[in-house]
């Protein structure tokens, strides 16, 4: 779309901030920024008393993360399978905010991950790639820094994230998305949003979108755990308008890519077959080829093109990552290391523990104890 988009007059350009910086939450009685908006919001709370004036409609959690599963999978309403493709801990940081019926995630991590699954069953998700080093693809399509991935309710995130990745996710219910889209020519048509898509805005639109998302992230960190009603209303509009403005700048025919490419389709089919077949380690490559009606060579080529590893290596890593996800969930669903290992097809427990430590930087029993400890502290 090369039509000029309408823009709410309150949407401002934010000053650049360091996206990679792991900030600590600033107390609300301090002055976290020279920006007039932040100071004004906090002044409102000071004027009426920090404890009684603001009606808190939003919540913010900001923390360091020790692994990819914490970044992607552990959130309400999500059903994501995360497979770590290379050894060493995948560390990062995460900010997660609820703003009424809308959500906002901002985070970064370093690693090589296969991520597939549903972000939200009921809401629309707009994923902005803030920083990217290495290979990043969705549905087999390459994704560049500044691209926006649009996923309708119940749609799948399906791709590979390699290297350093910083991202932001705006999650909004359908009616709110359509309400804000009315201000942008061409975006208010419901058919525009029916399928998953990757949008590549021009450079100036990418930069403007990044400034808005960074600014909102900084404001949320400054506000701390609770967000007053005045800030919730502002942030909901600002976040959606910032992303929609960038999408509206996409040139017709030049920025929208959707659909699943062949290599991604083959990998998805192999994953679905394995998930339906019980223990992953027992599945043979010949069984997958037969189920998908493809040759062994075609299967190997698809995995190398999409993930850079062989199908057998991927199945081992997928089982190992599934074991970690289960151990991390032990606070809500009690289990043992032995049971998890056997469920994922690892029959030699000593080798499983050694491979697990090499992959994630800690033993499976350490993961289990941490999950159980976190559950007791809730």
Molecular structure report:
This protein is α+β, with helices and mostly antiparallel strands and 378 residues long. 40% of the residues lie in helices and 23% in strands. The protein has 12 helices and 12 strands. Strands 1, 2, 3, 4, 5, 6, 7, 8, 9, 10, 11 and 12 form a 12-stranded antiparallel beta sheet that branches. A hairpin with a 2-residue loop joins strand 6 and strand 7. The longest helix has 21 residues, at 203-223. Residues 1-55 have low confidence and may be disordered. Residues 268-370 form the HTH araC/xylS-type domain. Residues 1-11 have a biased composition (Basic and acidic residues).
Q: What is the makeup of the main sheet?
A: 12 strands, antiparallel
Q: Between the first and last Cα atoms, what is the distance in angstroms?
A: 48 Å
Q: In sequence order, what are the helices and strands, one letter per element?
A: HEHEEEEEEEEHEHEHEHHHHHHH
Q: Rg to the nearest angstrom?
A: 22 Å
Say what oligomer this is: single chain
Principal-axis shape equals globular
Give the tally of β-strands. Answer: 12
In the CATH scheme, the class of the largest domain would be Mainly Beta
Helix percent reads: 40-55%
CATH superfamily of the largest domain: Regulatory protein AraC
- The low-pLDDT segments are 1-55
Do you know the CATH topology of the largest domain? Jelly Rolls
Q: Which percent band covers the strand fraction? A: 15-25%
Question: What structural category do the secondary elements indicate?
Answer: alpha+beta
Q: How many distinct domains? A: 2
Average pLDDT for all residues: 81
Per DSSP, the total helix count is 12
CATH architecture of the largest domain: Sandwich
Biased composition (Polar residues): 13-25
Protein name: AraC family ethanolamine operon transcriptional activator
Organism: Caulobacter rhizosphaerae
Region (Disordered): 1-39
């Amino acid at each position: 779309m090369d039509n000029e988009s309408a823009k709410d007059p309150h949407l401002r350009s934010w000053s650049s901030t360091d996206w990679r910086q792991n900030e600590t939450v600033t107390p609300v009685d301090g002055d976290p920024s020279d920006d007039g908006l932040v100071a004004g919001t906090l002044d409102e709370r000071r004027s009426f008393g920090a404890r009684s004036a603001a009606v808190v409609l939003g919540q913010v959690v900001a923390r360091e993360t020790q692994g990819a599963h914490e970044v992607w999978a552990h959130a309400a309403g999500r059903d994501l399978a995360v497979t770590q493709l290379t050894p060493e801990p995948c560390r990062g940081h995460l900010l997660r905010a609820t703003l009424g019926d809308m959500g906002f995630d901002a985070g970064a991590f370093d690693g090589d991950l296969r991520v597939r699954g549903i972000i939200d069953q009921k809401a629309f998700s707009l994923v902005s790639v803030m920083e990217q080093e290495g290979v990043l693809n969705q549905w087999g399509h390459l994704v560049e820094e500044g691209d926006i991935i649009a996923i309708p309710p119940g749609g799948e995130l399906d791709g590979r994230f390699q290297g350093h990745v910083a991202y932001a996710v705006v999650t909004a219910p359908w009616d709110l998305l359509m309400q804000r889209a009315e201000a942008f020519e061409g975006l208010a048509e419901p058919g525009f949003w029916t399928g998953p898509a990757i949008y590549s805005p021009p450079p100036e639109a990418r930069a403007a979108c990044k400034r808005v998302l960074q600014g909102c992230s900084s404001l949320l960190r400054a506000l701390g755990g609770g967000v007053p009603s005045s800030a919730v209303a502002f942030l909901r509009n600002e976040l959606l308008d910032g992303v929609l403005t960038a999408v509206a700048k996409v040139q017709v025919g030049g920025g929208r890519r959707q659909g699943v490419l062949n290599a991604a389709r083959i990998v998805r089919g192999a994953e679905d077959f394995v998930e339906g077949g019980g223990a992953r380690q027992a599945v043979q490559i010949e069984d997958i080829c037969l189920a998908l009606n493809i040759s062994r060579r075609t299967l190997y080529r698809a995995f190398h093109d999409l993930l850079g590893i062989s199908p057998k290596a991927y199945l081992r890593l997928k089982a190992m990552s599934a074991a970690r996800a289960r151990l991390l969930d032990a606070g809500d669903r009690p289990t043992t290391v032995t049971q998890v290992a056997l469920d994922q097809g690892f029959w030699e427990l000593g080798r499983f523990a050694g491979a697990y430590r090499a992959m994630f930087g800690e033993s499976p029993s350490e993961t289990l104890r941490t999950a159980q400890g976190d559950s007791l502290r809730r």
